[in-house]
Amino acid sequence: MKSETENKKKRLLIFYTFLIILLSLTIYSDSLEVPFHYDDQMAIVTNYSIRHLDNIPKILLSNPTRAVSNLSFSLNYYFCKLEPFGYHLVNLFFHILNGILVYLILNLIFTSIPLIPFVSALIFVSHPINVESVTYISSRAGLMSTTFFLLSFYLFMEFRNSDFSFNKKILFYFLMIFSYILSVGSKEIGITLPVVLILYEFCFFNKNEQALSWFSAFKNKIFYLPFFAIILMAFIVRYYTIGSFFHPTFTRNPYVNFLTQINVTISYIKLLFLPVNLNVDRHFPLTTSFNFTTLCFSGIILFIFCLAFICFKNRSEISFSILWFFITISPTSVIPLEDVMSERWLYLPSIGFSIFLSMSLYRIFCRGRPLCRPSFWADRNVRPYFYAFSRSNPPSPPFITLPDGRQEVGLGGFLRKIPFITIVSALIILFFSIDTYQRNLVWSDWISLWEDTVKKSPLNARAFLNLGVGYEKKEMFNEAIAAYRRAIEIEPYHVKAHANLGTVFSRFNNFRDGIRELEIAIKINPELDAAYFNLGTTYKKMGLLDEAVIEYEKALSLKPDDELIRRVLIKVIKQREVMNEEMKDPVKAKEIKKKLSDSYYNLGAIQLMDNVYNKAEDFFKKALGYNNSNIMAKLNLGNVYYLKGEFDEAIKEFKEVVKTDPKFYKAYWNLGLVYKAKGDKVNALEVFKKYSKVEPENSVLKKEIEDLSR
């Protein structure tokens, strides 16, 4: 009979696992063709450190706080290069594995009610809030951290199972620690596992430890020490690699962050219960004062904590699910981050919600049955803390029977009670699944994703930036320019918006606006390698190879591992060598010099418009050095001298322009203004009279002559 029951349980486990896999594959089937998005460009496409699998230490050290996930990207690149399909397949694999692990863990807790683990797992894998974590390739760090988090949890449960031999328990223990290292090495959220394990034991395992002495209690917890040693090591590694325990460059007032996260937490809870209006880049305003809304939300959170405390004695599974959520969300809530709120941060916490929802459904529709059977621990002879590593037999646990004395295991009697709960659960999962599938359709295209984002967050500059990138990829350049300009309107010092706008201008040979925007970007952030690279590309298009080399070298110094920058720099240096050879040919030299003169003139004009007179003077002189008959360069060099107060030099340049082209009215006008500014009314009047012969109907000129004639 027992063997038959065990076989039924195994078949049920296999069947439920199959359904979890099937549902996951179905609702995420349209995610496999989603292109690289947003940070995928930096993490994968332009991350040259992942392209050399033979240098694993370099891969791990290129991003020490994400070392394990970085290694997975390197393996992906080795097999798939830059085809997104393979990356999405790996992400989906980890998501499915996480769903199975959720089921297996809960199946060890809720042994007599297999529907709770199954429904919890289905809610988790189908919940739309997790789309960003699964479909957004760069979110793999959270997926992998959760996988090893859950695996370590499962191994912990097996380690605490005294049915196994001492050697097997030791094996489980070391595998558990190794999994925990991988979890923390994938993403820092893994550090919350020890707290969750302690919570688990308090809720389900060791309520009798209250009677133990202080020394015995400490001895019983000694196997937790490696967890905390790993946490300490993770903080040390973070400090020595990025120079800070937290964000190296970003800070926020702790009080403001605390108030804001109160409101964010309620928003998270609302999204878990009703996942509508999902947003990849949510614009969430900071809360700077303790207002009425924050007061109400604080009351709700306190009520939830009180509920968890009240339920601890007789409804510990509810306490466990609630506190799971708050413990696992704490790293992104307590530590100030640039993003105030992000849906992908709910991936691990959503497991707690999934457990809570499935248990709530069971409580509502199947009253009278216990949720987790204390006899489970007796069946598996689980040892108390003190006997965790002991070879001897432990004392019998004090809680070994159901309150009504029943020892029922499996589905017997349960099927008669589940029709309505099954229907309700199925409807919820169906709603989540449809929403997830539709959300993946939004992710299917860069433009559709960011158009959806700016629609929901019209004051989000970063969203408009990414929308502009999407338009640029599709060669919708007018729309891209409009999106970048809107980003700058919202956030005037948005460095990437300025840089991208400058790049688009330069692409259409609007070098003046292009260089101006790129130089603004560099002023805002002198460490932005892309701005130097694109500025170098602009100079290259203008034929200014010396300036291009300088900018490429700056970009390479900021990103020495970037193979693209290195290749382009080498190519431009060779082009410069070829140009220098061509300069020896008089015919080719004349053409090259004319182009260089025009290009330097454009640079000078840009600097003049920005009131950078010394640079403008240098560029105009270079323009004249290559082509002394460049009238516009002479004219604007005179303007520079005039604006600097060097009137004699200005007069000299304007006279040369008039001599070269007697009908160039701008030169007459500027020359007259210089004489006037110098106080030489006689020469000013003479020049303006000559100008009047070129433009006799100019009313402004007539007025100047009248004023000077008095």
From TrEMBL:
Membrane-crossing residue ranges in chain numbering: 12-29, 85-106, 113-129, 141-159, 171-202, 222-242, 254-278, 290-311, 318-335, 347-365, 414-434
A UniProt-annotated Pfam family: TPR_8
Xref: PROSITE patterns: TPR (PS50005), TPR_REGION (PS50293)
Highest classification ranks of the organism: Bacteria, Candidatus Schekmaniibacteriota
Keyword match Membrane: yes
Name of the protein in question: Uncharacterized protein
Keyword Flavoprotein found: no
InterPro entries: O-mannosyl-transferase_TMTC (IPR052346), TPR-like_helical_dom_sf (IPR011990), TPR_rpt (IPR019734)
SUPFAM superfamilies reported in the protein's UniProt record: TPR-like
Keywords: Membrane, Repeat, TPR repeat, Transmembrane, Transmembrane helix
Per-repeat ranges for TPR: 461-494, 495-528, 529-562, 597-630, 631-664, 665-698
Organism: Candidatus Schekmanbacteria bacterium RIFCSPLOWO2_12_FULL_38_15
